[in-house]
Specification:
10 strands; ABC transporter transmembrane region fold; alpha/beta; elongated; 612 residues
Length: 612
């Protein structure tokens, strides 16, 4: 793989916008501590040279006192100003750095990381499903979350310190000229350091290109790592001896990425060494010149020590400035992911009309056409359907027929390309989506497993303001056939659902599905949608759950989606979808009497059961 492949890289205008955005974010996160740090960092940028200058003057006075045999009182009188200045600098240094961990770590770095993660989660919650399900968005989210706050903090913090160090370097540069250090030494040290910084920037860009082009392989590595850390996967891996294959695959990918990195960086190692040798030679020549000036009696002992310190500090300030700015540029390349994620906006434009209904409404789909991408085939084709209030409706069809997509459209997670969807005659595009989601409660086929939460939280999260209503929690668990196994858990409703937590347990897939159904019973809304609700539940529990649905929730609209015909045979109306169209509808008996697609599929499933 070539590291010269195209990769997203902001131009200078975009870079300035990103830097300005992060700068505002940085200052909002650190607040008043920023002003304290500004004073402290400016002082730290120049204080080493002040220390060296005052010490050089004190050293010259000490040499003079020894040479002319001055008394201690005379020495203290002559050196009083320099001693007081040195002590004052020392005192200010102590006061500004008395608790660097508290101000530099806790109130700055940790607070920045905390607010960064919070900003990520808050923005994620504001994006709609249509945006989040997009493959490009998911790739961007993975990159932004994987990199975390490090690039953003590096961009802001290193840019901050780089500018402070630049101030220090300018002070050292002026002082070096005033001190009389030959300009050729200054130019040689500065030139070599600048060239070295160019090498660092090139290496950073190479590293970024490799990272960006190997993101897909990194995703594979994360998933492979999960196979070694997830308890429910470890068992099968051990029994099938798949862990050996997975280990070899992980090693192959990591070695390949490592080899790419070595091959890309190796040519620049020699250039770095040559430039370091040039800088070392320039410093040695400058030190030799200082010693020559001292031997010619043009410099005092204090001047010699100060000159050596000045060259050292000048060189370090330049390298520190370049390194900090390089780290900021490097951070910018990776920080663009989080910035781009924060610039994402919802795809759908939801209305502002309130929809506060206490009775199930009529839902009407009028000639709906939908596909996820313009290059893909239609998922729904000219589909019209009326769902009456309090209707018991089942939607069946093969996998990929469009059943789940139909529900996503009713929930306004997507919008049809043609046609419209009405709730009591009101176009759902004009309705506030939070009202729509309160009205329609869904348990999707890929239901959530909140493993870091307790049983009570897993059930009550659908109406978390009423989590303390224990009676209601138990009633929901009973209707979902979950009460019996919950009562056997160590702490019942308070039991965490992960063995990684103290007192936690692991549930079976069927038990998790019962908890998901309990969420629906805990807060049913006016319309209940169950997508393959009992796929992992035993037949006895399945029968009881559906009996509870039909007996306990009579005043609601119930929509059941399934490809298992046995599951929905009791529904008052069954709609059969194939290739995005409604091809049959009626009750179970009516559809069997038609002897069409439904009857044929029913017979095939029944025959399969008998053969088993």
């Amino acid at each position: 793989m070539s590291v010269r492949d195209n990769h997203p890289r902001p131009d200078w205008r975009q870079s300035l916008k990103i830097v300005a955005w992060y700068w505002r974010f940085y200052w909002c996160s650190i607040g008043w501590v920023g002003f304290y740090r500004l004073i402290r960092d400016l002082f730290q940028a120049v204080s080493p040279l002040l220390y060296a200058f005052f010490f050089a003057r004190i050293l010259d006075l000490l040499v003079a006192a020894v040479k002319y045999q001055l008394s201690l009182d005379v020495f203290l009188t002559q050196a009083r100003f320099w001693l007081l200045a040195y002590g004052l600098i020392w005192l200010v240094d102590v006061l500004l750095n008395f608790d660097n961990w508290f101000f530099g770590n806790l109130l700055t770095e940790e607070r920045f990381r905390l607010l960064f993660r919070q900003a990520f989660i808050n923005h994620f919650s504001r994006l709609d499903y249509a945006r989040l399900e997009n493959a490009k968005t998911q790739g961007l989210i993975i990159k932004a979350w994987e990199q975390g706050p490090w690039p953003a903090y590096a961009l802001t913090e290193q840019l901050w310190k780089g500018l402070i160090n630049l101030v220090g370097f300018i002070v050292y540069f002026i002082w070096a000229v005033v001190f009389g250090l030959p300009f050729r030494f200054i130019a040689l040290i500065s030139g070599a350091a600048l060239l070295r910084s160019m090498v660092l920037i090139i290496k950073s860009r190479i590293g970024f290109r490799i990272y960006d082009r190997t993101t897909k392989k990194s995703i594979v590595l994360w998933r492979l790592y999960d196979f070694f850390t997830k308890f429910n996967i470890i068992l099968e891996s051990k029994l099938s001896q798949a862990d050996q294959y997975l280990s070899q695959k992980y090693q192959t990918i990591t070695q390949r990425i490592f080899q790419w990195r070595v091959k890309a960086f190796l040519p620049w190692v020699g250039a770095t060494l040559i430039l370091d040798l040039i800088i070392l030679a320039a410093k040695l020549i400058a030190y030799w010149w200082l010693m020559g000036q001292f031997l010619l009696r043009r410099f005092s002992v204090g001047d010699l020590t100060f000159g050596v310190n000045l060259i050292f500090r000048f060189h370090n300030a330049l390298l520190e400035t370049i390194w900090r700015l390089h780290e900021a540029i490097n951070g910018l390349m990776y920080a663009q992911y989080f910035y781009r994620f924060q610039q994402l906006r919802p795809v759908l434009h939801c209305g502002s009309k309130r929809l506060e209904l206490t009775e199930p409404p009529e839902i009407r789909l009028e000639r709906v056409w939908f596909r996820y991408d313009p290059d893909q085939d239609w998922v729904l084709r000219d589909l019209s359907l009326v769902i009456k209030p309090r209707e018991d409706l089942a939607i069946v069809g093969e996998n990929g027929a469009g059943k789940t997509t139909l529900i996503k459209l009713i929930l306004h997670l997507y919008e049809p390309q043609r046609g419209r969807i009405l709730i009591n005659g009101l176009d759902i595009r004009e309705v506030k989506q939070e009202d729509l989601l309160r009205l329609i409660r869904v348990i999707p086929q890929d239901f959530a497993r909140y493993q870091v939460l307790t049983v009570a939280e897993n059930i009550g999260i659908s109406d978390w303001h009423r989590l303390e209503d224990e009676e209601r929690l138990w009633q929901a668990a009973k209707l979902a056939e979950a009460k019996e196994f919950i009562e056997r858990l160590p702490n019942k409703l308070a039991t965490p659902l992960s063995k990684e937590l103290e007192g936690g347990v692991e549930l079976s897939t069927g038990q998790w599905q019962k908890l998901a159904l309990a969420r629906l019973f805990f807060n049913p809304g006016q319309i209940l949608v169950l997508d393959e609700p009992t796929a992992s539940i035993d037949p006895v529990s399945e029968y009881r759950i559906f009996s509870n649905i039909y007996e306990q929730i009579k005043d609601k609209t119930v929509i059941i989606i399934s490809h298992r015909y046995q599951t929905i045979r009791s529904a008052k109306r069954i709609v059969v979808i194939k290739n995005g169209r409604i091809i049959e509808e009626g009750s179970h008996r009516q559809l069997l009497a038609k002897n069409g697609y439904y009857a044929s599929a029913w017979k095939m499933q029944q025959r399969g059961k008998l053969e088993k």
